[in-house]
Structures are given as structure tokens and as C-alpha cells.
Amino acid sequence: MVEKEPDFQISEERNEWDMERIHVLAERLLPIYADVASGQMDDPKSQRYLNELIGILHELHPADMATVLESLPQQERVMVWRLAEPDEDGEVLLEVSDVVRETLIESMGQQELLAAIEDLDADELAELAPDLPKEVVHEVLESLNAEERAQVVSALSYEEDEVGNLMDFEQVSIRADVTCEVVLRYLRRFESLPDHTDKIFVVDDDDILQGVLPIRTLLVSDPEEWVHDVMSTDVVRFRPEDNIEEAASAFERYDLVTAPVVDANKKLIGRITVDEMLDVIREESEADLLNMAGLKEEEDLFAPVIDSFKNRWMWLVINLFTAFVASRVIGVFENSIAQIVALAALMPIVAGIGGNSGNQTTTMIVRSLAMGQLNLSQWGRLLRKELAVALMNGLIWGSAMGAVAYWLYGSMGIGLVMVAAMTLNLLLAATMGVLIPVVMERFGRDPAVGSSVLITAVTDSGGFLIFLGLATVFLL
After folding, report:
1. Which domain does 60 fall in, by range?
2. Does 113 share its domain with 180?
């Protein structure tokens, strides 16, 4: 009988229901958490709530459990974490965000941590090690055999942004001078293949990578065919020192599931897998989004007030300074505004459209730099293109707003100033939208960090200066 595929919509609704129910149950049980922890609960209703909560938690996949924990305030999070399935604690720690992981680890004792991570693979231990207490890491390393210990130490020797840091040491390798039938018999000896195994690595006697044998090729090949006749030698491979974001881009570009990692002598030392690369892509996208908003790092939704303050204050201070500069620009033209009150109503339009246009340009440039689509030597050509777009937008929408201004205030002069100011501010926005991320990239800074704040500051002050300056010169 063919097994029916699960209905995604039903599964999704079930997960949403579980999430809401977990929140409700955790909130009800929190006031009596001491009784929950000690097992001395006398109230039958509370005991039903507890049993229901435990039942739901123990059915959750580790990834869903991570989502639940990230959505709970810290006290409820700790309680739910205590009630979760202990056998899956290590997998959940791998799934949660870094900031939430810290709070969970802080709530665990040394023996709990050791029990949680004892069954993790070497690459998973290496991923968690920076967040674990040193004594726990030391004890875990002592419990490993020599090969596993060497693998963990090897992964920890690489920087966080290098391929070697996320390298998986579980892979299947074969020799080229055997038949496909021999390979199939060899594979049947495994209880299960490593996750995401879509290809087998072909090496020589010294473990030098010769090529790969895709599983789909193996399955359709004649059993008597030799591996060296059916294997592929055109292999995307990485060095452990390669940048992890560039590797993730290669996975996306070439639709990879796994790829070999080789040392300087082309010796196979590990592999990287698509699940890790998806995490890298997601984390990079989230980091760019946070940086463009002026947030220094990822933030726990329910972090203490002081922690959130520390994460946000720097760019708010910069924004406060730039807003003060913009106010001083307006202050210089107080007499002009007093004589032509319409200027006060129209100048936010000039600044606002400039900021929006500049953010569009900056977002496009930052994305192109992140994906490797833009070479810094091309910035001049790109600037000319963006200036042409800004000029077209300025003339079209500036003329539209100029007509509206003429209709509202009956002044041809105000209408013409509106056209000129919007066009010039859009040109300024295009220029700064290209230059800010390009200059930051050239000086080794993350072009996403604060770009939105900076471009808004420039277009606000510049827009006020251009509009009020033109009005003062031509209308007074």
C-alpha cells in the first residue's frame, strides 16, 4: 500500500495551534513553576495543564522546539526548556539563534550540558563549543576517541567565516579501480548513509580527490562498469580556508547538495552540506537586514531592557546627530519659511522621496556586493546608470509635484523650485546610494552596516538645503 503524503496545510495549522497552546499553558504554569520543578503539584487542573504541555513538547521536531523557545519570554522559556525531551537538547541547541542559545546554556548545569551534547557529531560539537563553558568543552574532548578529538580541534582551528569551521567529517569515499557492483555491495554494509549523501567521493590510495560518483549515476550504471569510467571529474571543491559566504553562493549557483573539502595537496578532509549553507544564507540575510537598520547584532526578542538598549543606542545617537544637523539647516532658512509658509509644507516631500530613492539604490548595491555580482571597478558605470534613473524620476515626479504645488499655492515659482529640488535631491540620493556602500566595502567595512541611516541623513539634510536654498535665491 502506498503511504499517503502528509498534508502540508494540515501540518502547518497543527504547528500554529501547538505554538499558541504552548504559550497559554506556559503562562498558566509559570506562577507555580517551583511546584512543577519539584514534582509536588496537588492541583488536578494544573497537573492536566502540565501533562498536556509535556505531551506537545515531546512531539515537536527540534527545529520547531527552537522556534517555540525563541517566541517565549525568558522565564517561560527556561521552564519549557526544562520540560522538553532531554534526548534532543543538543539538536535544539544547534537550531536556536545564538542569543537564545546563551540563555539556555546559562540555565543548564555541567552534567546537563554533557548529557545534551554527548551524542553530537564532531562538526556539531565544534559549532557549539564557542558558547559552552571551557570545562564542559574540555571534558567532552577527553571523552572522545583520538579521531573525533582531532576532528573537533581541526574545526575549531578555523575562523567562524571559513569553510573549515562548518566542515562535516562524515563522508563515503571509494577507489576508482573498482566496479559499480563492488560499490553497491560496499554501501549495503552501512546501516545508513550520512545525511545529504548525493554523491560518493572517489580518492586514490593517499586520499587525493579524483572525482565524484553521483548516487543517481551509480544506480543506473551497468554493475560491471568501472568507477573511473562513470565518475565525474568536474567537481566543485573547496578549501577549508575559503570564505563561507562565497561557498554558500556557489551552492546556490551550482545547485549543490554536498561538496568536498580538500587541503592544499587536494587530499579529501571533509565535506560541506546544503543544510549548513542554507543556514549561512539565512543568517547573512538577517544580518544585512539588522545592519541596515542600525542594529549591531541579532537580538533576543525578550532580552532584558539593558541588553536591547546596548544593541541599539549607537546608531540612534548617530541618527540624533544627523537629525540635529537637518534641523540646523532648516534653522538657517527660518526667515524664508516665515515669508513663504508653503515651504514648510513642501520640504518634507523633497526629503522623503530622496530618502526612499537612496534606500532603494543602497539596498540594490549592498545585495549585489553580498552576492558577488558587483565588482568595485564597475562602480563608475553603475553610478552613471543610477544618475540617469534619478534624473528621469526627478523630472517626471518633480514635474508632477510642481504642478500640484502650483495648483495649491498659485505660484509658478514654487512649482519650478519643487521640480528642481526634487530632481537635484534624487541625483544626490543616487550618488550617495552608490558611494556609501562602495566606499565602506573598499575600506573593508560591512556595506550593510548603517547604510539606511546614513543615506536618510544625507538626503534629509541635502533635501532641506537644496529646496530652501533654491526658494531663497529665486523666490525672495
Report:
1. 8-162
2. no
Residue 219 lies in a domain: yes
Burial of 166 (0-12, 13-18, 19+ CB in 10 A): buried
Q: What is the C-alpha separation between 286 and 284, in angstroms, rounded?
A: 5
The answer for residues whose C-beta is within 8 angstroms of residue 228's C-beta and 6 or more apart is: 176, 177, 202, 210, 211
Give φ, ψ of 198 to 5 degrees: -110, -10
Residue length of the chain: 476
The string of pLDDT tens digits covering residues 75-119 is: 899 889 988 888 888 999 998 988 889 889 998 999 999 989 888
Model pLDDT for residues 421-473, shown as the tens digit of each residue: 999 999 999 999 999 888 888 887 777 776 777 888 888 999 999 999 999 99
What is the CA angle 235-236-241, rounded to 5?
Answer: 130
How many Cβ atoms sit within 10 Å of the Cβ of residue 120?
18
Please report, for the chain, how many H helices and E strands are present, in that order: 22, 5
DSSP state of 257: S
What is the CB neighbour count within 10 angstroms for residue 259?
22
One domain, residues 225 and 202:
yes
